[in-house]
Amino acid sequence: MWQLYLSGEIHSDWRQRIRDGIKAKALEVTVSSPVTDHAASDDCGDVLLGKEEQAFWKDHKAAKINAIRSRKLIEQADVVVVRFGDKYRQWNAAFDAGYAAALGKSIITLHDEDLTHALKEVDAAALATAQTPEQVVDILAYTMVTE
Known about the structure:
This protein is of the alpha/beta class and 147 residues long. It has helices at 14-24, 38-49, 55-76, 91-102, 120-125, 133-143, and strands at residues 2-8, 29-32, 79-84, 106-111, 128-130. Strands 2-1-3-4-5 form a five-stranded parallel β-sheet, with helices on both faces.
């Protein structure tokens, strides 16, 4: 059973498309991801540890709490998929890619062609760069062949 971590953009259905593809191909993959509820992720520090008046400290607490999950799941992953969308800058995704690279994890980046130049360093650390979730599933299916 492979462990797959899906990092990055949270405003589209790319994660579900990968899950659906894994199921359709009957791949032995367990999928994990960061908290994808934007408000819950942003507010977890205030909710769990008390309200902060300054935005910096609110974000600081939330980032650290969210990092507990992200670090653990990236460390356990066999493959890390990092999705960069065009609507928002995913600084956290770039950080996850760097963390995964530092751990020697296999990385697949996922982004539209128009982001290729901006992400050239991240793509250089990846073992594959896909433009669709279906390509990610195809890469997984190919690399998991046991013959």
